[in-house]
Design goal:
Elements (H helix, E strand, L loop, with lengths): L4 H21 L6 E5 L2 E4 H17 L4 E4 L15 E9 L1 H5 L6 E8 L2 E9 L4 E6 L3 E6 L5 E2 L11 E4 L1 H14 L4 E3 L5 H9 L5 E4 L6 H13 L3 E3 L13 E2 L4 E2 L3 E4 L1 H19 L2
Parallel strand pairs: 3-4, 10-11, 10-12
Antiparallel strand pairs: 1-2, 4-5, 5-6, 6-7, 7-8, 8-9, 12-16, 13-16, 14-15
Helix pairs in contact: 1-2, 4-7, 5-6
Length: 283
């Protein structure tokens, strides 16, 4: 699929506009609901979900649209669309609720079950990151013009690893005991912003193990990560897949653990991580 300059401009504008709405609404009254234990949604998520769904359905009428807050849209994945727009209106809803800045608006484009483009907007920083297979990796600050991101060179013998709170509690002690050179870093709540920290050289690896992350969480950041030359794989070294057999078709959650990072660091860590984690992950 060819994204024209006009498409790119329109997408940047809608993603930033929705993010700025979220920032404004964060200090106003909004409702919070619990979808399932530990999983929350707000009326802000729902409002932005509707706006983004309508925008992409109108701009690309032949494509499927899958969003986090429209459960019925998940059935579109099993329809024969060549492309899907995968939308997370607020990635990091709990951070948004708690007044933390680490939430994002994310849109990813999946074509023939391959992530080819993604947009991640951090409202509190007014920073938009986007890119993909044929685009490179770009950032736009505020209403400034997009600029190509400078992808930093890998640091030699550095093992800075981003890990989420749940995985840190469950696995960090075991990993650190076996791989003492790992330096675990505090990470933002948004899956997409965690990945961007690796893309921008603030860490070498992002490790996600609990297998609850969904299609709308992963398409955008993995498209950008791959465009930046990062390795995106599971603990066995298999590329992260977006085909039906590796997803839970009801929730669209990935069944693979996810490792994203500098290839040489990932390849060095994988066998050591498997030795520590395989017994625990099989429980």
């Amino acid at each position: 699929m060819i994204l024209t300059p006009a498409h790119l401009t329109e997408i940047r504008h809608i993603v930033r506009s929705c993010g700025q709405q979220a920032k404004t609404l964060s200090v106003q009254n909004y409702e919070i609901f619990q979808k399932e234990p530990g999983d929350f949604v707000t009326t802000v998520d729902q409002t932005l979900d509707r706006q983004l769904s309508e925008f992409f359905a109108n701009l690309f009428p032949d494509d499927g649209v899958i969003t986090e807050e429209n459960a019925a849209s998940r059935k579109h994945y099993q329809v024969d669309y060549p492309r899907f727009w995968c939308i997370d209106p607020l990635d990091g809803t709990q951070d948004f609720i708690h007044g933390d800045p680490d939430y994002a608006v994310m849109v990813g484009l999946l074509e023939n079950q391959i992530p080819i483009a993604g947009w991640i907007y951090a409202p509190e920083k007014d920073a938009l990151y986007y890119g993909g297979k044929a685009l490179g990796v770009w950032q736009a600050l505020g209403d400034g013009a997009p600029e190509l991101c400078e992808i930093p060179a890998a640091r030699v013998n550095s093992f800075r690893v981003i890990i989420g709170d749940k995985d840190f509690k469950n696995t960090a002690a075991k990993i650190s005991a076996s791989i003492p050179e790992i330096d675990f870093l505090r990470s933002p709540g948004s899956f997409g912003l965690k990945v961007m920290n690796v893309v921008l050289g603030k860490a070498e690896v992002y490790l996600y193990l609990n297998r609850r992350v969904k299609l709308w969480d992963t398409v955008s950041p993995i498209a950008i990560a791959q465009a930046a030359g990062l390795m995106c794989c599971d603990l066995e070294g298999n590329q992260i897949q977006f085909t039906p057999e590796v997803l839970d078709l009801e929730s669209l959650a990935h069944r693979q653990a996810i490792v994203i990072g500098q290839a040489d660091v990932v390849e060095a860590l994988l066998p050591r991580l498997r030795a520590v984690l395989d017994p625990q992950l099989s429980l």
